[in-house]
Structures are given as structure tokens and as C-alpha cells.
Amino acid sequence: MRFVLSPDGVVAPDFSAKLPGRGAWVTARREMVDAAVKRRLFARAFKAPANTPDDLGAQVDAGFARAALSALGLARRCGDAVTGFEKVRAALKGGKAAVLIAASDGADDGCGKLSALAGSATRYALFLRSDLSAALGQDAVHAAVMKGPSAVRFRKAAERLVAFRATTAAAATE
Predict the structure, then answer these.
(1) 95 conformational bin, left if phi > 0, alpha if psi -120 to 50, beta if neither
(2) Alpha helices (runs of H) in 14-166, residue ranges in sequence order
(3) Cβ–Cβ under 8 Å, residues 122 and 157
(4) Residue 12 and residue 18: Cα distance in Å, rounded?
(5) How many Å apart are CA 9 and CA 13, to the nearest integer?
(6) CB-based contacts of 35, cutoff 8 Å, min separation 6
(7) What is the DSSP code (8-state) at residue 48?
(8) Which end of the chain is more exposed for a tag (fewer CB within 10 A), N or C?
């Protein structure tokens, strides 16, 4: 993950890795970013005074989540995503779905039933129902992204979020 120093000396995440200026790279894991903030490593990396926000890790997490939700919203607008239990169930049964998304605060029975049908579809439960609903433009607990470029785009963004949220212990067991 690349970070840059703004003109007023504040460290900011550079999600596109294209912002001008000297960049500082940190492994895209929450504990690594938090450790860099705690140990004041950004000032050394930039060779200049750096005002590092205490919530920098939360800012990065929110940025990765926004990117994943944006990819999901784009898939919906392209017609490559469906919502609702029955539509998602039909997509999974038909083998059309590449990704199954369930709200992290959704009911276990519905999520379990769809998960049993998922087969080779990648499963995610990263977002609250309210976040999914906002991204999809309608109330949603379950969503499926169909096979194709939209699924690839969403998976890439979701995996960055998953990797960022993973702890060192969990990453070692995978």
C-alpha cells in the first residue's frame, strides 16, 4: 500500500498508487499500518516531518471497502449482479454466479442455505446490510455477481479488503 505526504504534511493513503510525490510503501495489512503509525515510521520514510492521523488504518480499511462496494454497484448497474434470496438462489443453482455476497448481519439460516448452493462461487460476508443496500440501490441481504469481468473486478477489490483485515495469525493458517 502506498502512502503520500500532502502539501500540508499529512500522511494520506494513495489507493491508485499514482499521486505525485515521494511515496512510502507499507504492507497492506492493518497491523502493519497501525505499527507504522505507532512507531512514527512515515517521517523517516519521507525524510520530512509527517503528521500521521491516528485513524490511518481505519481510513485505509474504509477505502478498500468503498472500492469493493463500488465494484459491486457497478456490477449491478451493468446487469451482472442480482439481489434477493430467490434471484440469488436461482443464479447459484443455474451455475451462473461467480460470487455470493451475504450481509455480515444477515440471518444465519438464509446465508447457510445459499452457501450450501454456492459450489465453486466465492463467498464473502464483509459488509453490513445497510452498506450492501446503499451500494446496490435497494434493500439487500444477499447478492450474487455473475461470471465475467464484473466478478473479477469485485473479487480483486474484495480480496484486497480481506487481506488488509487479516491478522498475522490468520494469514499464517491459510
Answers:
(1) left
(2) 30-38, 41-46, 56-77, 85-93, 108-117, 129-136, 149-165
(3) no
(4) 13
(5) 13
(6) 41
(7) S
(8) C
pLDDT for 8-34, tens place per residue?
A: 999 999 998 899 988 999 999 999 999
Grid cell for residue 44: 523517516
Distances (CA, A) of 57 to 27, 54, 123: 12, 8, 25
Question: Residue-wise over 29-63: b if at least 16 C-beta within 10 A, else e?
Answer: bbebbbebbeeebbbebbeeebebeeebbeebbeb
Q: What is the pLDDT of residues 141-166, one digit of tens each?
A: 999 999 999 999 999 999 999 999 98
State pLDDT tens for residues 66-117.
999 999 999 999 999 999 999 999 999 999 999 999 999 888 888 788 888 8
Domains annotated for the chain, with CATH where assigned, are 2-54 (no CATH), 62-173 (3.30.1330.30)
Mean pLDDT of 113-142: 91
In 3D space, the residue among 127, 115, 129, 133 whose CA is nearest the CA of residue 157 turns out to be: 127
